[in-house]
Amino acid sequence: MLTPLCRFLAVRRRAAKCIHWNWALRSLCTKPSTEDYDVCIVGGGIVGLAAAKELIERHPNLKYAVVEKEKELSVHQSGHNSGVIHAGIYYTPGSLKARLCVEGAELAYKYCDENDIPYKKCGKLIVAVEPEEIPRLEALHERGLKNNVKDMKMVGPDEIREIEPHCRGVKALTSPHTGIVDWARVAKSFGETFNKKGGHIFTEFEVKGFHMTKEGADYPVTIEGNKGKSLRCRYVLTCGGLFADRLAQLSGCNPIPRIVPFRGDYLLLKPEKCHLSRGNIYPVPNPSLPFLGVHFTPRIDGSVWLGPNAVFAFKREGYNMTDFNVKDAVDSLSFRGLQKLVFKNFTYGLSEMYKGVFIAAQVKQLQRYVPELRVQDVTRGPSGVRAQALDMEGNLVDDFVFDGGEGAIGSRVLHVRNAPSPAATSSLSIAKMIIDKVEDTFSL
Q1: Are 212 and 406 within 8 A, CB to CB?
Q2: What is the pLDDT of residue 32?
Q3: Taking the chain, what is the end-to-end CA distance rounded to the nearest angstrom?
Q4: I want to staple 405 with a disulfide (CB 3.0 to 4.6 A). Which of 52, 251, 399, 434 is the partner?
Q5: 410-429 as b/e, with b when 16 or more CB fall inside 10 Å?
Q6: CA distance 193 to 26
Q7: Which residues, in sequence order, are bridge partners of residue 128?
Q8: How far is it, in rounded angstroms, from Cα 283 to Cα 293?
Q9: Burial of 53 (0-12, 13-18, 19+ CB in 10 A)
Q10: The whole model's pTM is what?
Q11: How far from 420 is each of 293, 381, 424, CA to CA, in Å?
Q12: Omega of the bond leading into 287 within 30 degrees of 0 (cis)
């Protein structure tokens, strides 16, 4: 009797290992079924999953699939970010980014409430430590007011210490509705909602090409995947993140804008030092530099991240300093847009690389805001890679880019080639805009 029992338990253990998450996706598998689909969404990050959720909620009678090249959903940008719910202060009034961020933050809080996802409105201080930073801080305040960011106010040194006892500055802008959340968990919840409403999710499906059969066919687009996988559908929406440009080129799109990866390395406050930051502490951004600068970011798990720097990554999904991919490196380094960006920001780039290697250099920047911080208070932390779209002149592409491609396939495919930061905060509002575009392009 013992031998059959052991065999039974072994089978049960092997079956249990097939489940990737602690929630069951009804159709999650690594091999597509023979069923055909009305719309296939390529990309299982937060933008692709939010779009898939929005699509199935608007048109529940159609058949949908999401394909993702990794074993799990949201493992790259969606799972390697600071976890901040931004309020919408930084963006040009009236711009799409400003509107989508403010609306997206409200939708994110509402979604988390409805789906029991923990978050915390820990607030944000944008701190001026030098008098010459005050005009830029006041300009940010004006922007935030025009963007309808709630309950912001300017505070002086005493109020700074009341909000953040260990922070020092001459003036600060406080945003109490800035929050923190685990965006990977939010993204997977979008996937769970999509799945529960009848959508299919296929992991370990890396798209290699899009092919058009005759236009009159019921399902004229074939998506070719790795290891002989394929899937037929009427229409395709791609939200490829770090590989958005390469997916677009598969249907004949222009290679510009090019995705160039930038890695951000964080430090971690040691647990006994996490009291140094109650909420988000940010610098006043310098408009002449391409990124925000180092900051203090509390996490929903109680840890505190410090940073990041911003350095060129030699691999699109390279989270370590030594990660290298020949194709990724050559594509980026030979691109005139990156060369021009480096030329314009050469000194800044060197300082960012220096901070990545020497912890003390990054700590020195952070001490401007929290003087008590010491090198021995921190350890090396996680890293993330940002998909930065660049044009040929080395300008950061700051708006959304949609594209289709050449020939008949172009009328059947819609690529989201750039969904700029803060894409996680704005994901639900971005999804509404994307699906509006899908409905218009495909006449759903």
Answers
A1: no
A2: 56
A3: 59
A4: 251
A5: bebbbbbbbbbbbbbbbbbb
A6: 11
A7: 171
A8: 7
A9: buried
A10: 0.91
A11: 17, 24, 9
A12: no
Bigger pLDDT: 241 or 293? 241
Is residue 256 classed exposed, middle or buried when 0-12, 13-18 and 19+ CB atoms within 10 A define those classes? middle
* Domains of the chain with bracketed CATH: 25-76+184-257+400-442 (3.50.50.60), 262-278+285-387 (no CATH)
Q: What number is the average pLDDT over the span 107-119?
A: 98
Per-residue pLDDT at 13 exceeds 70: no
pLDDT of 19 > 70? The answer is: no
Category of 131 on φ-ψ map: left (φ > 0), alpha (ψ -120 to 50) or beta:
alpha
How many helices (H) and strands (E) in the chain?
12, 20
217 versus 108: the higher-pLDDT residue is 108
- Residue 389 and residue 242: Cα distance in Å, rounded? 9
Count of C-beta atoms within a 10 Å radius of residue 298: 23
DSSP 396: B
Averaged pLDDT, 89-113: 95
| Rounded Cα gap, residues 180 and 308, in angstroms | 16
CB 213 within 8 A of CB 230: no
Q: Name which of 111, 32, 121, 19 is nearest 68 in CA terms.
A: 32
